[in-house]
Amino acid sequence: MSAEEKLTQRIILSGSVGVKKTDLRKQFVVEDIDRTLEDLVTRGDICIDKKAGAYYCWHREYYLQSLLNSDAKFRLIYQSIKSLEQSINKTSDALAKTLESSTSDIISGLSELNKETIEACNLENGLSAGFTTQLEQFKMDFDGSVSNYANSIGWVEFAKVRNELCAKYNISHEEFYRLAEELVSKYDKKYELSTGGYEGITIRGLLHGFVRCV
Amino acid sequence: VYPYNLQQNPYPSSPTPTIADAKILGGKRHNDAKVAVLSCIEDLYQKMTGVAATDKDFRLVTVIQDVGSGKTHLSLHIRGLKELSSNTVISYVDLSQISPRDIHSLYRAMLAGFTDGYIREFKESVVYFLKDKAEQNIKKANKVFRFGIFDSIRGKNLATKAQEILSDKLTPNCSDIQTLLSGEFSTTEISIIKLILEGNFRQELQGASTLEDIIRRIAAIATLNWKFLKKLTILQLDEFDSDKKSLDFIKAVVNAHLPSTVLMLVMTPSSYEEIRKENPSVFDRLEKANYKIDLAGSNTLEEVLDILLEYIRYFGDEKIFTVDEEKDLRAKIKVIYDEFQDFRNIRSMINILYHAMEDAKKRGARTIDEQAIDNTIRNAYPGLRIQGSIMGVPLSDFIKIHRSSTDDRRLESDVRDAVINLVSYAYENGSVARLEETNEKERSGIDLIYNDQTGTKVAVAVVINKDPIKSFDQISDRIKSTISADKLIILTNTHTYDSTNKASVVNIDNRKMIDLIYFSSKYRNNEIMRDDSQRALMLAKSIRLC
Fold first, then answer.
1. What kind and span of H or E run contains B294?
2. Is the CB of residue A154 less than 8 Å away from at least one CB of chain B?
3. ipTM
4. If pLDDT is split at 50, 70 and 90, which confidence band does A113 have?
C-alpha cells in the first residue's frame, strides 16, 4: 500500500467526524504530505474544511454527513432540495407515464390512420385498376362486335352491339351505354359516331345510334 | 377591317353551305374525297373520248357520312370546280327540299339542278349545229331560223339569225325539226332539243308522264350533253334517304345505265341503314357503287383545324396570316375542341369563328383573341360551361392558362404556388392550421406542410408530368428521412393505377390544374369574391387538402 493509499484509508476511518490535518502530519511522516492532500482534493476524493479553528479532512463519502450534522442551515436547504427532488421525480414519473400512454395512443392512432389511408388508397387503386381492366375487356368485345355487324363501310347500329354485349356481360342497357360512352370518350380517335337510329349515345342533343371503328 | 387584315368575314354565317361558300375546301380528308370523285370523272371521261355515249358509261358514286361532316359542302365544291366546267355538266338536287316526292317532282328538281349557264351553252351548241346544217343547204334547217328573202335584203345571214335566237329575240321554228334530225337523233332527244330551242327545258314535262318516259328523257339529256358539248353528266342527289318514291326512282336510274353519266348519291349512315331495310334491291346496288367516298375522320381536330384555317388562307395574305399567326389560332381552336364536345364538328366551329371574327372586328382586334372567343361562347351559347371546372373559369382565362401550361416546369411551378395559396386561403378561413415554415433541406421534394382540422400533420408534394412511380418513391423516401408527417398527399397529373402504400395519390386533371392556377391568380390579386370563396374551399376539398 502506498503512502497516498494509507493516507486515504486513514481519512475514511475517521468517518463523518473527520481528522485534523495536523494529526495527519504527525501520523504520516512523508516528505510532502500537503502536496499529497492537495492531489486528493483535486481529484475529489477528500474534502478539507475549517472546523473550530482547525483544518479537518473528510473522505467525500462522509463530508456531506458531517455538514448535515454540524450545519443546521445547510441541513434545512438540503432537506428542501431533497423534497423538491422527490417532487420533481414524482412529476416526471407521472409525466413520463402520461407521455408513454399518449404516445402509445398516438402511434396506435397514426398506425390505424395510416392503415385506413393505405386501405383507401389500395381500394381506390384497386377499383380504378378493376374498372380499367373491365373497360379494356369491354373494348375488345365491343370492337369484335362492331367488326362482326358492320356494313361495307364499317357502320353498325349500336343496338346490335348492345344486344350482343348485354347478353354476354349480363348487364343492363344503361350499363352498356355507360361503358360505351366511357369507351368512345377515352378512345375518341378510334371511334366515329353518327346520328340516327333508335338508341345510342346523345351528343349535342342528337341521338347517335351508329358507330364504327376508324 | 376584320382580323388578319381581311376585308370580309371569311366564315359563312348560314348553317348550310352555299355555292359561294363551297369554293373553299379545306381538310385532308375532304380533299382526298374530292380527288376520288375527280378520279372517277377523269377515268370515265378518258374512256369516252372520241366515241358515242353508251349504257356502259355509267358510274355510281356514294358519299356516306354523318350530318354536319361536309358532304354537301364537298358536293357543291365539286359542282363549282372550274376544272370540271370543260368536261362535265352537273345537276345538284337537295332532296330534302322536294315534297311531295314523285317521279315528276324528282325529274323537275333534276332539271332545275342544272345551271342557267349550262342551258345557254346547250342551246348555243344546238343552234350552231342547226346553222351548220343550214349552211349545207338543208332546207329544213333554214326553216328553223325563219330565214327568208327579206332577211337577205336586210343583209342578215344565218349567223345573225342564230344570234337572235340565242338572245331570245327570235323564236325558232321547230315544226320541222323532227324530220330534220330524225336520222341522227332519237325522238326523245329531238323533243329535248326542241325544248332547249323554245326555252322550255325546265318547264315542259308533257310527254313525260311515266317513269319510263322520264328515265328516257334523262338518258337523252346525257346523250345530248356528250354529243353537243362533249361533257359528262353528273347528277348529284343530296340528302338521299329511304323515301319509297326516291328509291324507286333511283333504282330505275341505276338500272337504266344512263350514258356518260355519274350518279352521285349523298346520304348519312342512318339513311344508308334505312335503305337497307326499306329496299334491299336498291341497297344492293348502292353496295356495288363504283366509288364509295368515305369522309372517315371528318370531325377530327386536324381536319376541323385545316378546314377552318383554309377560309383565312383563301381570303388572306400569307404575309399577314403568317405561320405563327396560324399556330396561335390553332392553339385557341384546339382548346375549344378539347373542352367542348358539342363543338367537335365543323358546322359549330365555323359558327363560332364567324361570330369571333365579328366580335374581334368590333373591338378592333388584329387577331381572333381569347376575348373574341369568350364573348362568342357567352353570347351564342350562354348556358355553356367548361365541364368539371369548380372555379367557373371563363373561357378566355381557360384558353390563356391552357396555352401557357405547355411548359412542364412552369406548369409545375404554377400549380405548386397555387396549392400553397389555396392552403393559405383555407387557413385564413379556418379550415386548416397555419402552414409550417420549413428550411430548404427539409423541403426537398415536399412543397408544403400544414396541420389539418384534426391536427394531422400533412405534407404535400406536387408532381407534374414526371415518371410517377419514380417520383412517388423519391418523395416518400425523402419525407421518411427528413421530416415527420402523419400524412403525405401527392398531387399529380400523371394517371397511374399502380398502388403506392407510402402516400395518398390525388390525380389532378388539366381542368383542375387550370382551376388551381385561376384561383391562385385571383388570390394574389385580392380578387376573391364571396362566390369564389365557396368554390375555392370546394376545390381544396376536391383534392383532399382539407
1. strand B291-294
2. yes
3. 0.74
4. very low
Say if residues B293 and B63 touch (Cβ distance below 8 Å): yes
Strand A46-51, strand A54-59: pairing: antiparallel
DSSP strands (E only) in B456-546: 457-463, 487-492, 504-507
pLDDT at B437: 76
pTM here is: 0.72
Burial class (CB in 10 A: 0-12, 13-18, 19+), A163: middle
CA atoms of B289 and B285, how far apart (whole Å): 7
Q: How far is B288 from chain A (nearest CA, A)?
A: 10
Q: Is B93 helix (H, G, I), strand (E, B) or coil?
A: strand
Query: Which residue in A110, A135, A151, A199 has the most chain B C-beta atoms within 10 A of its own C-beta, making it the best mutation to test that interface?
Result: A151
Select from B362, B393, B391, B392 the least CA-distant residue to B376: B362
Cα dihedral A143, A147, A153, A158 sign: negative
Question: What's the gap in Å between the CA of B297 and the closest CA on chain A?
Answer: 7
Q: Among the listed ranges A127-136, B85-94, B292-301, B528-537, which one has the minimum average pLDDT value?
A: A127-136
Tens digits of per-residue pLDDT, B230-281? 999 999 999 999 999 999 999 999 999 999 999 999 999 999 999 999 999 9
Q: Which residues contact B331 (CB under 8 A, 6 or more apart)?
A: B403
Q: With an 8 Å Cβ cutoff, is A125 touching chain B?
A: yes
How distant is the alpha carbon of residue A33 from its chain centre?
A: 60
Sheet strands (E) in chain A: 19-20, 46-51, 54-59, 156-157, 191-194, 201-203, 206-208, 210-213
Judged by a CB distance cut-off of 8 A, whether residue B341 touches chain A is yes
Is there a contact between A200 and A210 (Cβ–Cβ < 8 Å)? yes
CB B15 within 8 A of CB B346: no
Secondary structure string (H, E, C) spanning B104-126 = HHHHHHHHHCCCHHHHHHHHHHH
Q: Which residue has the higher pLDDT, B443 or B383?
A: B383
Q: What stretch of H or E contains B92?
A: strand B88-94
